[in-house]
Write a structure and sequence with these properties.
Helix content: 40-55%
Radius of gyration: 31 Å
Number of domains: 2
Largest sheet: 4 strands, antiparallel
Strand content: 15-25%
Length: 315
């Protein structure tokens, strides 16, 4: 039953409601309104909600794309820095020979702190020092050679480009999140409008609101802790009996120090697939991953030491 005060307080605005669940509730609401729209009273609600859903989907997709770009940019920048460090480390001894020793003024001017100018320094210091090196490579090109000057200049340009793209991606991620939150607010507003309109069109119905909204979609699935155990060495243990449903998922966490294998039995007979989890490894597979039916979950410990695990069924 839907709490009327919740409508006033803002049922769809709770912080616990993530955007994916808000979308799921909205899409379900669209389908329900469409199926119960014989008089076309919900035409505007359906259209407006569909638009809000599409806008939030687009905002979430863009945010994911830019997060991916940021991650890729970080990797590109790190790879570029590693390449510069490796190149300088391979060239610095040849530079010392070309300058006729590490104690000469020209060498000290070009590599004042040797490789310490590039290893284990902040990104800003690294960029400053490499840029300075490109200038020294140009100044002492007759000693260090054109290939060195060309290579270090090109590599620094690549590093700078990667850094600029990363900074841009980070800025986009922040902007994307703000836009995504704004689109989620628009959708929450529209769902509140729908809730009020459904109530208006069904004033004397005690079940209409529940028929139009599945509020359970807004919140995390219910988890039931089924078992926590320490199977002894070289054992096969039946964890629990189950009521099979293809919509359920099995959450398993191997919290022990040895591998454990989990599977299904049907009337006492092992069936289907198994999953083997190493130390601290987790699994989140649907029931149908294991088999099309089952009555019992079992765990197999083939090692010389006891194991340990937790197991949950998500309905």
């Amino acid at each position: 039953m839907i709490d009327g005060q919740k409508i006033i307080d803002g049922f769809f605005y709770e912080k616990a409601i993530i955007h994916e669940r808000l979308l799921a509730c909205a899409i379900d609401n669209i389908n329900r309104m469409t199926n119960m729209n014989a008089g076309h009273e919900y035409d505007d609600n359906i259209a407006n909600t569909s638009t809000a859903v599409d806008n939030l989907k687009a905002a979430m997709l863009q945010a994911k794309v830019d997060v991916g770009t940021r991650i890729g940019g970080t990797s590109a920048k790190d790879d570029s820095r590693a390449a510069i460090e490796k190149y300088i480390s391979l060239q610095i001894l040849a530079a010392a020979v070309a300058f006729e020793g590490k104690t000469t003024p020209s060498y000290k001017e070009t590599f004042p702190n040797g490789m310490d100018s590039f290893y284990k320094v902040s990104k800003d210091t690294f960029a400053t020092n490499v840029e300075a090196l490109t200038k020294k490579a140009a100044k002492f090109v007759d000693v260090l050679g054109v290939p060195f000057k060309t290579a270090i200049t090109s590599m620094f340009a690549s590093y700078s480009s990667a850094n600029d793209l990363l900074s841009e991606a980070k800025a986009h991620v922040g902007t994307d999140k703000t836009h995504e939150n704004a689109m989620a607010l628009v959708l929450a507003d529209q769902l509140t409008d729908n809730l009020c309109d459904v109530g208006h069109y069904n004033r004397r119905s005690k079940t209409a609101l529940a028929n139009f909204f599945n509020m359970s979609l807004l919140y995390p699935q219910h988890r039931t802790l089924i078992f926590k155990d320490k199977p002894v060495a070289h054992s096969e243990t039946e964890v629990c009996e189950i009521e099979y449903s293809a919509g359920k998922r099995l959450h398993i966490h191997n919290t022990g120090s040895c591998p454990l294998t989990f599977g299904f039995k049907l009337n006492g007979i092992k069936v289907g697939e198994t999953t083997t989890l190493q130390n601290d490894e987790k699994s989140n597979e649907p029931f149908e991953y294991y088999f099309t039916n089952g009555t019992t979950i079992y765990v197999l410990n083939s090692e010389d030491v006891p194991g340990m695990f937790t197991l949950e069924i998500v309905a």
